[in-house]
Design brief:
four-stranded antiparallel beta sheet, mainly beta, 54% strand, single chain, 11 strands
Length: 119
Amino acid sequence: QVQLVESGGGLVQPGGSLRLSCAASGSISSTYAMGWYRQAPGKQRDLVASISTGGRINYAESVKGRFTISRDNAKNTVYLQMNSLKFEDTAVYYCNARRLSITGLYDYWGQGTQVTVSS
């Protein structure tokens, strides 16, 4: 069982920066692919960025060049550095840990952290 706790959300002006952190209670080590998703009011939850166990990174087109995902396996923590924030980045951001093994798919979510971009 893996528990994920996000932090770092808040209110920021357009053009500002925030750094989200996702701390895992269990060892995510190199066996879980990690991702950040976001959900705005009335919209579906969408992938923002992901990092595989091998370090392969994927970003949504809307955040490329502005957001950076990273992981520190020793600290069981994943980060999302968000720069040049825009109004449309406002959403609840969720951390996800996912592992596919012969015993099944293991999929864990954090409780979410609110990011509000407003002037």
